[in-house]
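Data deposition worksheet. Section B asks for the primary sequence of the deposited chain exactly as it was used as input, without tags or linkers unless they were present during the calculation. Section C holds the resulting structure in token form. Section D is free text for depositor observations; keep each observation to a single sentence. Incomplete worksheets are returned to the depositor.
Section A, Depositor: J.P.
Section B:
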Amino acid sequence: MAELRVLLDGLGIGESPRWHDGRLWLSNWLTQEVVAVGLDGTSEVVATVPTTIPYSIDWLPDGRLVATSGPEGLVLRQEPDGSLVTHADLSGMSGMGGMLNEIVVDGRGNMYVNSQVGVALVPAGGTPRQVADGLAFGNGMAVTADGATLIVAESHGGQLTGFDIAADGGLSAGRAWARLDGGHPDGICIDAEGAVWYADVPGRCCVRVREGGEVLQSVEADRGCFACMLGGPDGQTLFVVAAEWHGFDKIWDQPRTGQVLTARAPAPHAGRP
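Section C:
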């Protein structure tokens, strides 16, 4: 079992880690900031998101940062001058339940945004529409390297759910990609062997599974693991954002126990994000 090491301490609650431009980027819930972290542990605030909680981040093909403004039902876009504008307003999409969570942009520039109950597609240059429903607390999402499958973590469903991606970006054939035998998957990423790493808050761990649910590897932490991402120069560093968790009702009162942890992974990053 690989050993997790602390790269950065003192975060609020880190979420949505992404390896981008040689650094790990993440959203820091309690400070409404997007933070970039170097491999030497230095950090920089690269954006401030004026929202209740900036849940998740990704990038458009032209390099502009996008972030979900979760409670407001918006996807925000950072312009070259640093200003934030509304990229998509999903607040009126009744089947999404009003609260946005994760975001992932595929290789064609199509954006998938989920909530606790559904997935919306924001197509490149098109009109947003809902493309999946019935999720049991939708959380992390990833697109496979071939662009053919969207994998969604269902935290309350105890499984990773796969959807076929159509030519127009629509989703179909939702099925259990991996049942997790008591796991509570949160943020996820994919490696070059087609396995998925998922973070588990109550389990205080990150677990690597293949399609079908076989557990290949796990790493344990002393606090809840919210999300994970593969990155580094060779793509084989597993980054984990972890923090103590006492529930949403105490989120603003709890101390800053957030950390970025690292471990060596057996296979490099693949897919998106």
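Section D:
The chain has a mean pLDDT of 94.
The chain has one domain: 5-270.
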